[in-house]
Amino acid sequence: MKLKLATVALGAALAAGPVMADLVFPSLSYRTGPYAASGIPFADGYADYFTLLNERDGGIGGVPIRVVECETGYNTEKGVECYESTKGEGALLYQPLSTGITYQLIPKTTADGIPMHTMGYGRTSAKNGSVFSHTFNYPANYWDGASGAINYLLEENGGDLSGKKIALVYHNSAYGKEPIRTLEELSKKHGFELVALPVDHPGQEQKSQWLQIRRDRPDFVLMWGWGVMNQVAVQEAANIRYPMENFIGIWWSGSENDVLPAGEAANGYKALTFHNVGSDYPLYDDLQKYVVDSGKAAGAGDQVGSVLYNRGIYAAMLAAEAARKAQEISGNADITAADMRDGMEALEITEARMAELGLPNFGPAFSVSCENHGGDALVGVTQWDAASKTWSMISEFKPTDSDVIGPLIAEDSGNYASENNIEPRC
Amino acid sequence: MFYREAGDFKTSYIDDNQTFPIKFDRYRYYVVLAVAFGIIPFVMNDYLANALLLPFLIYAIAAIGLNILVGYCGQVSLGTGGFMAVGAYACYKLMTAFPDVSMFIHVILAGGITAIVGVLFGLPSLRIKGFYLAVATLAAQFFLVWLFNRVPWFYNYSASGQINAPERDVFGIVITGPNASAWATYLFCLIFLTICAIIARNLTRGTTGRTWMAIRDMDIAAEIIGVNPLKAKLTAFAVSSFFVGISGALFFSVYLGAVEVGEVFGIQKSFLVLFMIIIGGLGSIFGSFAGAAFLVTLPVVLKVVGADWLGWPTDIVAHLQLVIVGALIIMFLILEPHGLAQLWRLAKEKLRLWPFPH
């Protein structure tokens, strides 16, 4: 700990010293409060990948990376303070990991010309890049998640969900309310009944919601939860002996931290995902060698290989690739936030590139364009095995129902454009 | 030597009744105003505005409002967050319904609407007192947050249930939205704070304030000497909610820009404002300022010192912050139960005698 403190202090001293060319990636993390269980692994993964690039390659394109961490506690007021305090350092990209902070930052980042990447969260209609110029949400968004879950259930039930009852347990916030619109449309299309059960922040009180589930016996339960809410929900589901294989969480409700407290009872719980699980990738050998073994891992260093850690790695990897693209386009190694935005818009992730980075088959291939800031929306399903304590993919990455989502995105982004007098760019 | 009444002759009742009867105090007040209006706007940047000054100004308005109710009238309230939410949502509905009207009018109207709601929830105070009233206002807090979450009309049927402040101006200067400049938002809030503070100060010095204090000190005795408890309590609720509503409207429209009611105006907000007036000093306008400044700046200062200068891990700093703020609150309550305002009062007494303490 002392060594770590010393290195961090030294790093800060060096960073505060002479002005060097560096690429600044602020990390608005939360390692405290009721959402810490979800925030810590992501922040660790995000920081570790950049540490790896610095240690192994000397940064991106020869320019070192500086990660500025700021604690938000998943609180929007602190998030705003963090944004204001870090943007002056030459921030290239924001990833707030909070839908509430995202809503706050969409207009601010656009006005300041700094891109924001909300990977699998935030405002879904930001997929429409011609309205949301500085906001990106590739590779998948909440409405893809909703549709992906329904598609998976359709597949399991022979393509027919009519007459079934599906409950949605959601965090009563902008985040949890996001999928309701899509699920309502889908329920009309496929003829199932949707029951929405809100859970208030922070989510420790869910007795009444699960009592209702016990009484109504819905065929399937979907969950949009985060932080401590996930653990409580899985435990409550176990308490009422709800069949776990009919309980599907969004990708934010599918990490080790969420299922471990319920022990054996959580076996069979499913969660959506947009990237692969586990640590069986060549990249992890490098991580072990350059970051973990040399004591440079962020936080306690005990999260390596967990689902949310992987997601942090993935987020950092996409950011680094976009920065590389930006360097290529601008011909300048020390890029600005505007270059970064152009790089993100031209980003193309291929299978070959993923393999080159040491993450073969980790995530789907996709490309970003001016019209489409949301990638190709491929969603997979994972399942928890309590005996071996591992998540495994049970359904490959599959496309979602763009017939339903497309018009909804056009409508919502159209509303935003008319409210804020935005001319479509492309 | 500098700070005393001697030699400062008053020749009219108006002079004798002014807010700051001591010359030194009066000039200090003018200097503070001059710095706040004349100098700070020119050295303003986004960080200073959004991290320190805007929250301070807005919380100070809320603290003045709550201080009128709790400190001056003795009616304990835990509904501040809910009333701020009323101000925020009223402001949002007005902003979206009448886009061409000046923000000044919207904010004042939002305060007025909150005053009406406050009076409604103040009615039980005629029958119940103390802890029981605190519970009744707690019910208001939860009811109002539930209402704004439940009824889509309040958030204009937006998919996320959030309200977002559109761009609005005052005399052509953009005040809300991402393109508002820091100095404009600062001055806008400062004007409201100054006016609110002057109104509150003069209300509490006059008949209204005296009836509030009579009710606070002993309601039966007050009634016997001719104070109408109905009028005193309801005016306290109305004035208090008016200020709290203004602060809620500013909090949403100028400071945050996007609000989710459960998170921003939850029970924590009620407690935060209550702590501000307890630490600052109950029954003191200066105390409201001091308490707001203390609780707004302390976390930021600790963060800057811990994370930015010393380079400690952010989670350790965040945890330390809780420990230090908590310890300071307890220390203050033990060493100075009457808050920062009492320290200020003592300092003034000492100054009056200085340099001859006997």
Automatic annotation (TrEMBL), chain A:
Keywords: Signal. Residues 28-386 form the Leucine-binding protein domain. SUPFAM superfamilies: Periplasmic binding protein-like I. It comes from the Bacteria. Residues 1-21 form the signal peptide. CDD domains: PBP1_ABC_ligand_binding-like. Belongs to the leucine-binding protein family. This is ABC transporter permease. It comes from Ruegeria profundi. The lineage of its organism: Bacteria, Pseudomonadati, Pseudomonadota, Alphaproteobacteria, Rhodobacterales.
UniProtKB/TrEMBL annotation, chain B:
It is found in: Cell membrane. GO terms for molecular function: branched-chain amino acid transmembrane transporter activity. GO terms for cellular component: plasma membrane. Keywords: Cell membrane, Membrane, Transmembrane, Transmembrane helix. InterPro entries: ABC_transp_permease (IPR001851), LivM-like (IPR043428). The chain crosses the membrane at residues 27-44, 50-69, 76-95, 101-123, 130-148, 180-200, 236-259, 271-296, 316-335. It is a multi-pass membrane protein. The keyword RNA-binding does not apply. CDD domains: TM_PBP1_LivM_like (cd06581). The keyword DNA repair does not apply. Its main location: membrane. PANTHER family: ABC TRANSPORTER PERMEASE PROTEIN (PTHR30482:SF5), HIGH-AFFINITY BRANCHED-CHAIN AMINO ACID TRANSPORT SYSTEM PERMEASE (PTHR30482). This is ABC transporter permease. It comes from Ruegeria profundi.
